[in-house]
Amino acid sequence: MALNVFFSIMITASMCNKAKPSKKIFELAAEKANMPIKNCYYVGDNLQIDALASRNAGMKGIWLNWKGHKRPTVVTIRSLTELESRLPEYVELDFHSLF
Questions:
Q1: How much is the pLDDT for 88?
Q2: Of the candidates 87, 32, 42, which has an alpha carbon nearest to the alpha carbon of residue 63?
Q3: Nearest Cα to Cα of residue 75 among 93, 20, 33, 30
Q4: More confidently predicted of 37 and 87
Q5: Are 82 and 90 in contact (CB under 8 A)?
Q6: What one-character-per-residue DSSP string does 36-88 give?
Q7: Nearest to residue 6, comparing CAs of 71, 89, 84, 86?
């Protein structure tokens, strides 16, 4: 699957001397993308340090939950294939209405 079509920036904790869930790492990612943080999506498989931490930093957090657990306040996908097929849907939605 060619996800690099959607994601062209990679940020590591060592690049900003902070690790998730620090807001700084998410802010650096938005800065590198030259985008307002509110227009950025973050996909991760850890509910707390990925989906919720990115949302707390101002991004649109998506929880990659392989087991399919649901949390009503978090946008959840079960696979990257699902993300690829649903990303246009997320982009067109007012994302905050999902929370």
A1: 66
A2: 42
A3: 93
A4: 37
A5: no
A6: -GGG-EEEES-IIIIIIHHHHHTSEEEEE-TT----TTSEEESSHHHHHHHHH
A7: 84
Residues in the chain: 99
In eight-state DSSP terms, residue 96 is G
Task: Report d(CA 49, CA 44) in Å as an integer.
Answer: 8
8-state DSSP, 92: H
pLDDT score for 17: 83
Enumerate the β-bridge partners of residue 43.
62
Name the residue ranges covered by the structural domains of the chain: 38-99
Side-by-side strand order, sheet with 75-77: 41-44, 60-64, 75-77
User: Helix (H, G, I), strand (E, B), or coil: what is residue 91?
Assistant: helix
